Amino acid sequence: MLKLYYARPSAYARPVWLALLEKGLVFELVPVDLGGEQFGDTFQAINPFGHVPVLVDDGFRVVECLAILDYLEARYPQQPLMPEDAVAIAKVRMVQSISFSELLPAFFKMVAYPKDPAETAYGRQRMINALSFLEELLGEKTFFAGERLTMAEIVAGTLVYRVDALGLPLANYPQLNAWSKRLLSRPTWQEIELSVREWVRFKRKMQVLPRLWNRQRRMRMGLLTDNRS
């Protein structure tokens, strides 16, 4: 059976969880507490980089969100989530890349540094740029690649709808707003949705994560130095 190591709030784990659900696959969820469990010996043996998601399929281990999504699409082509047309493929890849390289870092800035005007202003502008591009790319289509849900929705759909909670009205982007509402009405999206309490707890954790990461970075640098000695 497929096994997914994940954390409910993780922006990288949630797309994989969604893909498994949309494909109708049978899988086991293994929660990982990102408050520190990811740095413990047990999880480090599964992923030495110390983050989720990790997919294990019949003994084969895959790390990194986009690699896992590609693996699932190739290994389990039923309920396909990738188009075949070159233009449509390019659109899906652009949405995935922009979501993780632009939208998510902006999201992190606005959540993790709420009392730092410079950080939040930078995050807000970066988010506006990303949303404006996605609004234009989507246009009047039902989904980014046309009339069928793809990996573009799987990735971007777990992030875009949250901009309202950061003080940036999604209504300013009417095409994305309608697209997001369609996604949120799907049973799969409802299954992974965070409760209000989970969302508040997630934001609090995000605000302490930079300190945790810095501490763990120093520890890991010490281990790497010792291993080279």
Descriptive key words:
globular; 57% helix; single chain; 229 residues; 4-stranded mixed beta sheet; alpha+beta; Glutathione S-transferase Yfyf (Class Pi), Chain A, domain 2
Structure overview:
This protein has helices at residues 13-22, 41-44, 65-75, 86-112, 117-138, 151-156, 174-184, 187-192, 196-228, and strands at 2-6, 27-31, 54-57, 60-63. It is 57% helix and 8% strand. A 4-stranded mixed beta sheet has the order 2-1-3-4, covered by helices on one side. By secondary structure, it is an alpha+beta fold. The chain is built from 9 helices and 4 strands; from the N terminus they run E-H-E-H-E-E-H-H-H-H-H-H-H. The mean pLDDT is 90. The chain has 2 domains: 1-80, Glutaredoxin, CATH 3.40.30.10; 86-189, Glutathione S-transferase Yfyf (Class Pi), Chain A, domain 2 (Up-down Bundle), CATH 1.20.1050. The N and C termini lie far apart (41 Å).
Topology:
Elements: E1 2-6, H1 13-22, E2 27-31, H2 41-44, E3 54-57, E4 60-63, H3 65-75, H4 86-112, H5 117-138, H6 151-156, H7 174-184, H8 187-192, H9 196-228
Parallel strand pairs: 1-2
Antiparallel strand pairs: 1-3, 3-4
Helix pairs in contact: 1-3, 4-5
Shape call = globular
* Topology-level CATH name of the largest domain: Glutathione S-transferase Yfyf (Class Pi), Chain A, domain 2
CATH architecture annotation of the largest domain: Up-down Bundle
Q: Evaluate the radius of gyration.
A: 18 Å
Oligomer: single chain
Contiguous low-pLDDT stretches (5 residues minimum) are: none
How many DSSP-defined strands? 4
Q: Averaging pLDDT over every residue, what do you get?
A: 90
How do the strands line up in the largest sheet?
Answer: 2-1-3-4
- What is the strand content? 5-15%
How many alpha or pi helices?
9
Helix content: 55-70%
Tell me, what is the CATH class of the largest domain? Mainly Alpha
Order of helices and strands: EHEHEEHHHHHHH
